[in-house]
């Protein structure tokens, strides 16, 4: 009983009330700072700092969570299909090459290696000519893709995450 009376007496003391007031003021100050940070985050989006002022969807119709869910679901579907189609394509190509090799070793196929070398050299020359012409088109495609990603960063990041999960499943 004696200890309880001492604790109660110390709680009623002026030193304790000053301490309680300081704690309360500190809590209010922290709360004000947290609210200020929240307001700042609402005004200044993180992707604006990363990608510039023109980033972000023109008209955000959906919340961030909805955009992530849509991107994640579509990414998962795309990744899953990519995985399944990739397995079928790899099996088909590998099986075809195996059959060609067996036919070559059995004598059913005769390869004219001089003609193959001539065709490969011809293709190399065409590729060297075509590379200079294709670069502007690739740069335009790359710029358009980058702009799309900047404007739809939330959906894009959800799509990438979902795509990777779809590949893994």
Largest sheet: none
Structural class: mainly alpha
Q: In sequence order, what are the helices and strands, one letter per element?
A: HHHHHH
Q: Stretches where pLDDT falls below 50 for ≥5 residues?
A: 3-7
Amount of beta strand: under 5%
Mean pLDDT reading: 76
- Please identify the oligomeric state: single chain
C-alpha-based Rg, rounded: 33 Å
| Strand runs, count | 0
Helix content: over 70%
Please report the distance between the alpha carbons of the first and last residues.
65 Å
Report the total helices: 6
Q: How would the global form be characterised?
A: elongated
Give the secondary structure arrangement, pairings included.
Elements: H1 2-12, H2 14-43, H3 46-51, H4 64-106, H5 113-151, H6 153-168
Helix pairs in contact: 4-6
Task: Label this structure with key terms.
mainly alpha; 86% helix; 6 helices; elongated
Describe the protein's architecture and organization.
With 169 residues, the protein is mostly helical. Helices cover 86% and strands 0% of the residues. The chain has helices at residues 2-12, 14-43, 46-51, 64-106, 113-151, 153-168. It is elongated and about 105 Å long. It starts with a helix and ends with a helix.
């Amino acid at each position: 009983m004696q200890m309880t009376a001492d604790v109660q007496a110390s709680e009623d003391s002026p030193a304790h009330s000053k301490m309680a007031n300081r704690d309360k003021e500190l809590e209010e100050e922290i709360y004000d700072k947290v609210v200020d940070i929240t307001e700042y985050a609402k005004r200044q989006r993180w992707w604006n700092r990363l990608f510039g002022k023109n980033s972000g969807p023109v008209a955000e119709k959906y919340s961030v969570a909805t955009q992530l869910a849509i991107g994640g679901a579509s990414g998962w579907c795309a990744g899953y299909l990519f995985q399944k189609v990739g397995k079928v394509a790899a099996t088909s190509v590998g099986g075809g090459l195996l059959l060609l090799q067996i036919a070559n070793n059995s004598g059913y196929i005769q390869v004219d290696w001089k003609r193959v070398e001539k065709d490969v050299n011809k293709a190399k020359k065409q590729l060297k000519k075509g590379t200079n012409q294709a670069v502007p088109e690739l740069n335009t495609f790359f710029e358009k893709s980058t702009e799309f990603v900047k404007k739809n960063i939330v959906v894009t990041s959800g799509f990438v995450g979902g795509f990777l999960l779809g590949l893994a499943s």
